[in-house]
Amino acid sequence: MKCVIIDDEPLAVDLLKEFVSKVDSLELVNTFTNAIDAISIINQSNVDLIFLDIEMPHFSGIDFINAIEKKPLIIFTTAYSNYAVEGFNLGAVDYLVKPIPFHRFLKSVLRAQQIFNPQNLPVSNNLISTPEIEQDFMFVRAEYENVKLNFSDILFIEGLKDYVKIYTTDNKYTLTLISLIKLENLLSSKGFARIHRSYIINIKHVKSIQKNKVIIAEKRIPISESYKNSFFEKINL
Fold this sequence. Notes:
Layout: E1 2-6, H1 10-21, E2 27-32, H2 35-44, E3 49-52, H3 61-67, E4 73-78, H4 84-89, E5 94-97, H5 102-116, E6 137-142, E7 145-150, E8 154-160, E9 163-168, E10 173-177, H6 180-187, E11 192-196, E12 199-202, E13 208-210, E14 213-216, E15 219-222, H7 225-234
Parallel strand pairs: 1-2, 1-3, 3-4, 4-5
Antiparallel strand pairs: 6-7, 8-9, 8-12, 9-10, 11-12, 13-14, 14-15
């Protein structure tokens, strides 16, 4: 993959250059300490991956993503962990918090490679099967009917003993008889996370994280200590 480094800190650039040189599948095209200078290069070149700082003077990494026409894969590299949710919502491959250890850098690169060249993923028993269509909805029993819920419309799910309340973007909720554990198993690979014994959230609808709470549609949902580490790891915080 052809890659570019954009970071206003020269020491951070040097470290990333050293990391890139250790990975045979990466080819460093250029480095920039100013995101504005990189815009025309990115738009005119075949760059596959950008290591991008967020907090930069005058023109942030977020501004940069919104300004470029071509959208390569992005790995955020920053000293500030509070942008993790925004990075996730922008479709970043990963979110690395400085100081970045090499093993964490390598994990991000492998993730980017899987997206960039998915046919290189290992195939069990050397057999290639036709991929199944990714289902983006589920049916739940509510009163006397089966209700279809699109995963993208679900804000969060609240457990109430044997029942759960599923809150959606249309300011409604569906009450259904199902266990929270069963929903957790179904939704964990769909961008959802269990953050409390009583709550599962849709990560893409998180507006912000405040101490031990997440904010979704003005609702403050608690993060319990038992789920905190796994949730933060999932969003690379």
